[in-house]
């Protein structure tokens, strides 16, 4: 697995080499040793899959507050998405910066998103599926969201946004006094 740092500290992109033979392909999704520079001593506590049918649909931008803040490893296992992380960490030199990358079944790339960054994605191919590994348990009381179209973040989505969940459509905009989250 190849691990690359992005412009946002602690946010990494991984690429896995797919090994092919007459039967098909084999590729690694997670390796504690190979991803140690990003994941450190964290423990994977949960794995989830989501599937999204409609091109242009957006899920996000989600994160959990401390003490349930979590790192997520996100990989596209079917189709293609534009995946985005936003830095919400108080005092971070890249506070409110976002970074996006196309993840697909084909390119085998994944995002490693640290605690204090919100995550979301837009579907670029019908029936795209994401596989997540989480370092914390799901905790609805600690869940929070940022609008996909928050003007202070200004994410450049590749397609017109569609199919937001009721919850995602109702995240409030960040107000001017928002200084970030503490971990
Ligand atoms: C995230 C999650 C949801 N759920 C439930 C709540 C709800 O009934 C249903 C769907 O949840 P949501 O609408 O929050 O699903 P979704 O909008 O796909 O949420 C996901 O969005 C992306 C962007 C992420 O980064 C993920 O961590 C996760 O927050 O599943 C769980 O039971 N466990 C979980 O870990």
From TrEMBL:
Question: Where is the site Participates in a stacking interaction with the thymidine ring of dTDP-4-oxo-6-deoxyglucose?
Answer: 138
Q: Which residues form a coiled coil?
A: none
Cite the InterPro entries for this sequence: RmlC-like, RmlC-like_jellyroll, RmlC_Cupin_sf
**Can you name one GO molecular function term for this protein?**
dTDP-4-dehydrorhamnose 3,5-epimerase activity
**GO CC annotation, single:** cytosol
What EC designation does it have? Answer: 5.1.3.13
**Which keywords accompany this UniProt record?**
Isomerase
The processes (GO biological process) annotated in the record are: dTDP-rhamnose biosynthetic process; polysaccharide biosynthetic process
- Broad EC category: isomerase
What is a single Pfam family found in this protein's UniProt entry? dTDP_sugar_isom
Family annotation (CDD domains): cupin_RmlC (cd00438)
Which reaction(s) are listed as its catalytic activity? dTDP-4-dehydro-6-deoxy-alpha-D-glucose = dTDP-4-dehydro-beta-L-rhamnose
Tree of life domain: Bacteria
Catalytic residues, per the record, are: 62, 132
Q: Tell me the function of this protein.
A: Catalyzes the epimerization of the C3' and C5'positions of dTDP-6-deoxy-D-xylo-4-hexulose, forming dTDP-6-deoxy-L-lyxo-4-hexulose.
Can you say what this protein is called? dTDP-4-dehydrorhamnose 3,5-epimerase
């Amino acid at each position: 697995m190849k691990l690359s740092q992005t412009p946002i500290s602690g946010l990494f992109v991984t690429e896995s080499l797919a090994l092919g033979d007459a039967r098909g392909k084999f590729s690694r999704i997670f390796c504690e040793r190979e991803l140690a520079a990003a994941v450190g001593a964290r423990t994977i506590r949960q794995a989830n899959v989501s599937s999204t049918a409609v091109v242009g649909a957006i899920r996000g931008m989600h994160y959990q507050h401390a003490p349930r803040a979590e790192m997520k490893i996100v990989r596209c296992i079917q189709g293609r998405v534009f995946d985005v992380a936003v830095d919400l960490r108080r005092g971070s030199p890249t506070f409110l910066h976002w970074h996006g990358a196309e993840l697909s079944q084909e390119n085998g790339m994944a995002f490693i998103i640290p605690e204090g960054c919100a995550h979301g994605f837009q579907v670029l191919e019908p029936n795209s599926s994401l596989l997540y590994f989480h370092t914390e348990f799901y905790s609805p009381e600690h869940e929070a969201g940022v609008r996909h179209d928050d003007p202070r973040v200004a994410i450049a989505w590749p397609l017109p946004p569609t199919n937001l969940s009721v919850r995602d459509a109702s995240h409030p905009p960040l107000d001017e006094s928002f200084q970030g989250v503490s971990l």
